[in-house]
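Q: What does the predicted 3D structure of Transmembrane 4 L6 family member 1 look like?
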Amino acid sequence: MFSLAFARSLGFALIPLATCCIVANILLFFPDGKISYVKNNHVTTYVWYFMGIGGGGLVMLIPACVFLGMGKCVDSCGTDSCAMCGSVFAALLGLAGSTYCFLISTMALLKGPFCFSQNDWIYPFEHDGGKYLFARERWSECLQPAHIVEWNVTLLSILLGLSALEFLLCFLQLVGGLVNAVCRPCCYKQEYSLNT
């Protein structure tokens, strides 16, 4: 059965993942390390969906805190079934946040960066279905910001990987909480019937 120690370890693991998601999303606002692009609204529209700051970041801190605080909940309630039920709801919230981060990052990666190309600010790879990812020779179509394709691909790939890990950790806790909620009462009934 899944233990409180296991849930706490998942909580500890979620905190650096959420922090990295927030940092990656913030960096997407500053291609080439310059603030002028965000001031002039020359960044991809998907960064304004805050997939890393919200979905993979702040939302993920809620299940992390719940998983870490489950021991205190058990001490105050006197039973761990209450804590496990809370962890199931927190895990569902974490699944929603990580899914949101993953989906928006995927859409942003497929659309490609917003850059200066062909004498205007456009999405030059918008209609190629992500094929630009495997055609590095086309990346030079983006003239400004410098290295914007590499910047976006790297950070969005990081967000994809982190959100997939977050999803996995929350799914593990969801399964653990449900197993405890279903199996533990059965085990207690068997113990009680054996003792009487």
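A (community wiki): The structure tokens above were generated from the sequence. Residues 4-195 form one domain. The beta strands are 115-117, 120-122.
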